Amino acid sequence: MASSSPLTNIGLLSLVVLIGSGLTGTVGKLLPLVILIAVAVLGSMMSTDSTSTADLAVEIAKGKKLIIVDVRTDDEVKAKPSNPGSIHIPIAEFNDRMSEIPEGPVIVHCAVGMRAKRAGNALRAAGRKPVMNVTDRDAAKKAAREAEELAKKMWRPRSNNNAHISLPSLIAVAIMGSVISSDSTTVADLAAEVAKGKKVTVVDVRSPGELAFRPPLPAALNIPVGQVESMMSAVPKDAPVLVYCASGRRSGSAAKVLREHGYGPVLSTANCDSAKKILDEVEKLAEAEGVTGKTR
Ramachandran region of residue 56, left (φ > 0), alpha (ψ -120 to 50) or beta? Predict the structure, then answer.
């Protein structure tokens, strides 16, 4: 999430696969390797942990300062200087110098992500949060900029001494780059409905055979994609809907049918994992306003 958008990454991955699919003969046999490399490249562009820029922004909006930590070696920093304002602690000295990092949200980077992950894990193990570890200097700069921009748009009621951030303001600017959705509906749209006391209806449009291989999320309605139109009466029409399948194609089709029949907001996403992440994000936003138990 930190260094490029999911759509950009998916586009790059698709391009590599498309090129590979056109190869024939001995070279064509390398297609699985081409795809594997593409997936590795995609992963290297994104944050190497589950912390989001929205998590950082929430803390910044409370008045805390964002800290960027560069764990590259001295020689690497001489060749390519750290971002302005960053704290430089080489990974070899990190455990001994961790106390030098001030309180506040943290972004850790190195050159490719592996050392940043080690440092990030060490900080989290020490009780620091939120901590985002990203790949390199550019990814850290981008993540910091996104978090700062989000924080500026978040509103704090003056009467609240605890700097509580209001849910409507938060969901209006929440970044969901870590969640791949196949339509323009956002997690913020679902959260806005949950804030009104509504519950998200989750619809799994996979086939019964797929469910036997991997069970649906708890409380999810199973309506195979070919039966959505005939069985949509089972889906509450006055509540937000989250639809998923195994890759996003069928869920996108099902969501379109639901919208055409007056349902909304309807968010379609790729699979069980992305659906669960969306529910977690909505729940996190709801808890900020004291609304719980409404996402599932």
Answer: alpha
